[in-house]
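Exercise: predict the structure of this protein bound to 2-oxoglutaric acid.
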Amino acid sequence: MDRFNRLEAYRRNGFLLVKGVVPDAAIDSLLSQYLHVVREVTGREFRDPFGADLVAFYNEHPDLESRVYVAIRATPSLEAFSRHPSVLASVGNVLGDAFGLFSKIPFRIDMPLWTSELAHWHQDHYYVRGNTEIVTAWVPMQDTRWDRGCLMVMPRSHADGVIAHDLPLGKKHVPSGIFDREVRFVEMEKGDVLLFSALLLHSSGLNVSDTIRYSVQARYTPLGLPVDPGMGAVLPVSA
Ligand SMILES: O=C(O)CCC(=O)C(=O)O
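Solution:
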């Protein structure tokens, strides 16, 4: 698909799956920096981010999993990954040549069968605020099929604009009147990038596999539009 058709598909569907663009080396390097953070936080050496020993450890010490989640955000690794030319070129398909990267970049650690941090159906705009042109690049660190909790999206839901998130659910809010729509499970492979609009309805899938699901959620905005300070600084980048 050429750039024009990618933009068309993104505008029509509210999301775009870009296949096989992020080199293994970029992902593997981020995972090895993650293992370094794990070692600093836990005092334990784990060789495999997908190993059963790390799953067992986090199940015994969920507080340390939370601390790793916070600690990796303080390293430069997530910004460097979000600036990788392959990720920026993917975002460039929908935002053109110059845009900004929000400095707040989550690195999700989704443990098998843990439900407390699941992102229930929402539009990012409810949490990210600012402007509705913001794009999320969701990048998995491994193949992410339905059983590892691939994202689910409601295609074309962005066209309905901002939807009230009127249903409180724990510390989150969910729009109550959306569930008669088509749902698409977006299964992905390592190297793929999923781009989606801040207005697209989407949800986490539950990780029912026996290994951890890792992913980066980098968010990008056209320059010059309103942004919310809660998302951190806007770092200029060019595709
Ligand atoms: O990775 C997930 O499960 C949810 C991510 C999400 O909803 C988001 O990035 O907006």
